[in-house]
Design goal:
This protein has 456 residues and is of the alpha/beta class. The chain has a domain at 88-109 and 223-420: Rossmann fold (3-Layer(aba) Sandwich), CATH 3.40.50. Helices cover 42% and strands 16% of the residues. The chain has helices at 15-19, 40-44, 51-63, 69-79, 112-126, 142-150, 170-179, 193-205, 223-240, 256-266, 283-290, 314-321, 326-339, 346-353, 363-377, 383-395, 415-420, 446-455; strands at 3-5, 30-32, 91-95, 98-102, 133-138, 157-164, 184-190, 213-216, 246-251, 271-278, 293-294, 341-342, 356-360, 403-407, 439-442. It has a six-stranded mixed β-sheet, sandwiched between helices. The protein is globular and about 55 Å long.
């Protein structure tokens, strides 16, 4: 299978090149030239498969024969060995035809483990010594921790994580600081997560070290989408054998999960609604609801993993809406990078609205929903999951179809808030205050970042 750039002017690449990359040479993101498509009968025949076998059926067409089937099966089985639930991603019922998909049973208790664990194994397979790479990305905690854990024993790869000065939860910041080593480099940016993302994008476009490969650990790398397509097949098979239509509510902690859901539907899965839920940082809600997407000043909320306004995978989605027209995407993204604003054609927006709805949830609504789920379903969830569950209940189109909310973070990551709401009986551990030497950059300091990379 060949991969092309969303901006249309980069040379096609194979799966190996896409995995060992940051972004395409023209600044776009790699996407498969053609999507595999499955008949409903074939999907239904997968109902009995364990998670790793299902992942093989979904993922193998994207590999294009570049990894032998036996080796890929072994790799996928190994990916989920560190997960602490036999089902890997179990479903929990929270109401009539309402479900939560628990994606937080991995090593760092976040859904980011799915992509990170797969990425580390693919990179290890393709990047043979003496070749070296830097896995680089922006994080507000969870993505960086997942990448650090996944690449812990990959000796020819260093991890470079940029994080914002404010907005990283204390426990995640302590985790990042505790992982700092010669193998892991941390950079604090005096700005927002959006500023970190912008710096990473710029340095990937002008990588300063010729003999070291740059690999993105954010979902600009295709594996960040690929690993998550499996979620939706798994849920639909559990709740209706892959034939019964299913809806999904996805908290907008990145656009990768949202785009992966859209791709799953295009591959033949019966999905009849996607609800995108945001907190007060509602740029995605405004895009879906009003066709008006723009960067904005980020405010802090109860769900800090959703406190940003730049979503790189939106570019892949727009490429699909414009029938894979790279030149149009190039023009739209150039205008967005200049102005910070983007609207798509009315035809494309209406096409998106056929499947997508959205809702922005305030912090007080989040607290109320957390209490409701605890009292009425006996379930403790983190604020991010509560955001998705409330949006699902208020905006589902059909009560006859199962509605699944993605639970991307373990409740224990919000133990302090849960304890304040009298919903947590376990230990509430304060994050350690650690002092670790690390680089501090001002936002936009691409020269400083490039200089640091040359030094590692």
């Amino acid at each position: 299978m060949d991969y092309v750039s969303t901006r249309g002017s980069a040379e096609p690449a194979n799966f190996r090149s896409v995995i060992l990359s940051g972004i395409a040479s023209d600044g776009g993101l790699y996407v498969p030239e053609n999507l595999p498509r499955f008949h409903s009968e074939e999907i239904a025949s997968w109902s009995w498969l364990p998670f790793d076998e299902l992942a093989f059926r979904v993922i193998s067409p994207f590999v294009g024969g570049e990894i032998e089937g036996v080796a890929l099966k072994r790799m996928l089985k190994d990916c989920y060995q560190g997960f602490d639930h036999r089902a890997v991603a179990p479903l929990q019922q929270i109401g009539p035809n309402e479900w939560v998909l628990q994606l937080h049973h991995g090593p760092t208790q976040a859904s980011k483990d799915f992509a990170a664990q797969l990425q580390s194994r693919l990179v290890t397979h393709f990047l043979t010594p003496p070749s070296q790479a830097v896995v680089i990305g922006a994080t507000n905690g969870d993505t960086g921790l997942a990448a650090i854990e996944a690449f812990r024993d990959v000796h020819n790869v260093k991890v470079l994580a940029l994080y914002p000065r404010d907005g990283v939860p204390a426990d995640r910041l302590a985790g990042l600081m505790g992982s700092s080593s010669d193998h892991v480099q941390l950079i604090e940016v005096s700005g927002s997560f959006d500023d970190c993302q912008t710096l990473v994008s710029k340095v990937l476009r002008a990588w300063p070290v010729g003999d070291v490969l740059p690999i993105s650990f954010n979902s600009t790398n295709w594996v960040g989408v690929l690993a998550q397509i499996v979620f939706f097949f798994h849920s639909a098979l559990q709740l209706g054998g892959g034939v019964r239509p299913v809806g999904f509510s996805i908290p907008g902690a990145s656009f990768a999960e949202i785009y992966a859901c859209f791709i799953a539907q295009k591959m033949g899965l019966a999905i009849n609604q996607v609800i995108v839920s945001t907190n007060t940082n509602d740029s995605l809600h405004r895009f879906i609801n009003q066709n008006s997407y723009s960067t904005q000043e980020v405010s802090h909320s109860l769900s800090p993993s959703m406190d940003f306004s730049l979503f790189s995978n939106l570019e892949r989605f727009i490429w699909e809406l414009y029938d894979r027209d790279g030149s149009t995407v190039q023009r739209l993204m150039a205008a967005f990078e200049d102005s910070g604003k983007l609207s798509i054609g009315n035809k494309q927006w209406l096409q998106a609205r056929m499947l997508f709805d959205s809702y922005a949830v305030a912090d007080e609504q989040v607290k109320a929903e957390m209490l409701t789920l605890y009292k009425e379903a006996g379930t403790a969830v983190d604020p991010q999951t509560a955001t998705g569950a409330l949006a699902a209940r208020l905006h589902r189109r059909s009560i006859a179809s199962p509605m699944v909310t993605l639970a991307q973070l373990a409740p224990s990551k919000s133990s302090q808030l849960l304890a304040e709401l009298n919903m947590w009986k376990g230990d509430v551990t304060a994050a350690a205050s650690l002092s670790v030497d690390h680089l501090v950059l001002s936002k936009g300091d691409i020269d400083g970042l490039s200089s640091f990379i040359r030094g590692i």
